[in-house]
Amino acid sequence: MESTETLRSVPLGRYLYDFGLSQDDPMTELRALDINPDDRLLCVASAGELPLSILAHTPLLIDAVDISTGQLHLSKLKLATVLALDPEEAAQFLGYISCDREQRLRLLSRVEEYLDESGRRFWDDHLFFFKKGPLHYGRHERYMAKFRRLGLYLLGGEKKLYGLFECENSDDQEEYFDKVLRSDVMKRLFYIVFHPKLYKRRGIPEQGFIHEGERNLAEFLFSRFRSFCTSTPARENYFLQFSLLGSVVYYEALPAFLQDKGISVIRLHHHNIRYRHISYTDIIGQSPEGTYNKFALSNVCDWMKRDAFINLLQLIVEKADVSSKALLRYVHCAHALPEDLDQAIVPDPGRGELLCQKDRFPFYNLVPMDIRVREEIIQEH
Q: What is the pLDDT of residues 282-296, one digit of tens each?
């Protein structure tokens, strides 16, 4: 174990991963994709919450892919944590709830028993990340943390924010939000935090802004802020609590894979998840037809140029099993479908709006899609 002085001196000038907390609400994927145990799901690994929480709900087969080795190490760490620790210890170790660094380092020795050699080396080389927990050291989380105290002050202070968690239902939350919290002042902060010149240099990689001309990002995100605070039970929303307070303050809000029932399911079926260092497009191109029938696309279209994204959709149509479904998220741009895919891909924007109303992180537009393979189209005609 490295000395305390060494731990303090680890430089944080580079980012090992962009997201410490996945921004895709697993409950939305479960609803949109109609997940069942016979499915084969392809998803983006990101920070790991999505595949783990879906598996905690339904023991299906999941391939979680990412081109970032850091994101994959983080995702695997979260799985190992669930296998090694009880729910409270796991939440403390990862940084969902607070504890001291020494406790996390003690827990690390148990977690490492479930990591491969590469994973153990990776985290042993970055012990500083257990000061607050790995959740806090994503590029996005570190950026947002700089503004958290100011955001709380502008809303009216932590004491007033806690009143939101005491509300009985969404109607009460809406009334409390409008009458007590000073959200109008927050709009100015959004325009600073999400200004492209600042956010794309420090908040996320510039690749995420290749379609930035599609909309005013700060204005769009602020338009969803009220829904973020009111549309779902605040006491049960880990996205809301972590974003505004820097930790999950109510245990019932912890992700499904950190709940007793979810941990039990994952421990029985953890071999159902495979983490793959490969792009979403490449794994589909290399897979036999019918390998997957459910596709959680996250917001890949925000990061891909139109031709690359359309190529991805064409591959999905070519390789998908019958009766397949997909869910796409986007902030900037969804890309119009070409005519040759209009029968094979059937989006349902109306249902997407309904799904967004219950999404616990509603800062994305949602597009659920039915994928119809060639045989289904022929039969229909």
A: 999 999 999 999 999
Q: What is the DSSP string of 153-218?
A: HHHT-HHHHHHHHT-SSHHHHHHHHHHTS-HHHHHHHHHHHT-HHHHHHHTS-GGGGTTGGGS-HH
Which of 195, 223, 253 corresponds to the end of one domain? 253
Q: Are 72 and 53 in contact (CB under 8 A)?
A: no
As for how many domains the chain has, the answer is 2
CA distances from 152 to 21, 156, 229, 244, 266 (A): 20, 6, 13, 7, 36
For residue 376, give the CATH number of its domain: 3.40.50.150
Contact 341, 306 (CB under 8 A): no
Same domain, 194 and 58: no
Kindly report, residue by residue over 91-111, the tens digit of the pLDDT: 999 999 999 999 999 999 999
Domain C-terminal end among 195, 218, 253: 253
How many other CB atoms sit within 10 Å of the CB of residue 237?
A: 22
Which residue range(s) make up the domain with 150? 139-253
Which residue do the tokens 């769009």 mark? 220
Tell me how far the alpha carbon of residue 369 is from its chain's centroid: 20
